[in-house]
Design brief:
alpha+beta, Aminopeptidase, nine-stranded mixed beta sheet
């Protein structure tokens, strides 16, 4: 994908090891410094959040050009992107450590795992998140992706503290069986702990993290079961977005070539409808 710019911010894929390291440094600041993730000795010494997946994933970056130099890119937002064909060639998907993905993967090989999303606190605004979504839309269009998925997190490791939003997601945004992912049995945390008539939807939405609300706005659904990630001090849900469900509003907002993109997604919608009918 080609880079594009909004004022002082540039969004594009990482091109160098230095840029990947800058994204890892941002991840360390957010995940370990702000969210209380438990760091291993190598992680703490380097002050970088890294794992083997970084070597073969694409890294989507928002860069502040005004604060960057040739040797010191100022990365203020990032997403890690892993396409299905790349995962097949290497170590599978990161999410497979928490979820059984077979139903989704069997539905289509054209899937994209989103992970390691974070934004610098100074830039944590709707505009920066929209830039990341615009970059994802470009990437999806370029690679003909049918489904986006990944783990999105609630802070903390007490399921009782987020009982309401988990039940809300289960009753109102559970993925269809054809693509539903499932938390691994040994890690499964029940989401259905409140009956639907006891759910205050407005309050549940207020308690959802902004990233999860963003996924819901583009038609996101969730897998069955949450997972406690003790290392990252979070409770995860598996989010799935069928790209054909991204509305014309979002296509026009995020894609530079909305007419071509609209044709692509219209064809994808027809293909999806035929698959459901079959």
């Amino acid at each position: 994908m080609k880079p594009f710019y909004v004022n002082n911010l540039e969004i594009r894929l990482a091109e160098t090891e230095r840029e990947i390291a800058a994204s890892q440094a941002l991840r360390y600041t957010v995940f370990y410094g702000e969210m209380g993730a438990k760091s291993k000795p190598r992680t703490a010494m380097s002050e970088l959040d890294f794992d083997p997946y970084d070597e073969f994933c694409d890294h989507l970056l928002v860069i502040d050009r005004d604060r960057s130099t040739a040797h010191n890119p100022c990365v203020v937002g990032t997403y890690r992107l892993l396409r299905g064909e790349v995962a097949d060639e290497y170590a599978g998907f990161y999410s497979e450590g928490e979820y059984d993905l077979q139903a989704l993967i069997a539905r289509s090989p054209q899937v994209l795992e989103l992970g390691r999303s974070c934004i610098d606190a100074t830039y944590r605004s709707r505009g920066t998140m929209q830039l990341l979504w615009r970059g994802i839309a470009e990437y999806v269009f370029e690679h003909s992706i049918k489904y986006l998925f990944g783990c999105a997190s609630f802070p903390g490791i007490d399921p009782a503290a987020i009982r309401l939003p988990l039940a809300y997601l289960y009753h109102h945004h559970l993925a269809p069986k054809a693509i539903r992912t499932h938390a691994l049995n040994e890690r499964h945390v029940e989401m259905n702990t409140l009956s639907v008539d006891r759910i205050d939807a407005a309050q549940a939405l207020r308690e959802l993290p902004p990233l999860i609300k963003g996924y819901l706005r583009v038609g996101g659904v969730v897998g069955d079961g949450a997972v406690i990630d003790y290392d990252f001090n979070t409770i995860d849900v598996n989010i799935i977005v069928e790209t054909a469900n991204v509305t014309a509003k979002y296509l026009n907002h995020y894609s530079r070539d909305s007419e071509s993109a609209a044709r692509y997604y219209a064809a994808a919608e027809r293909e999806s409808a035929q698959g459901v009918a079959a």
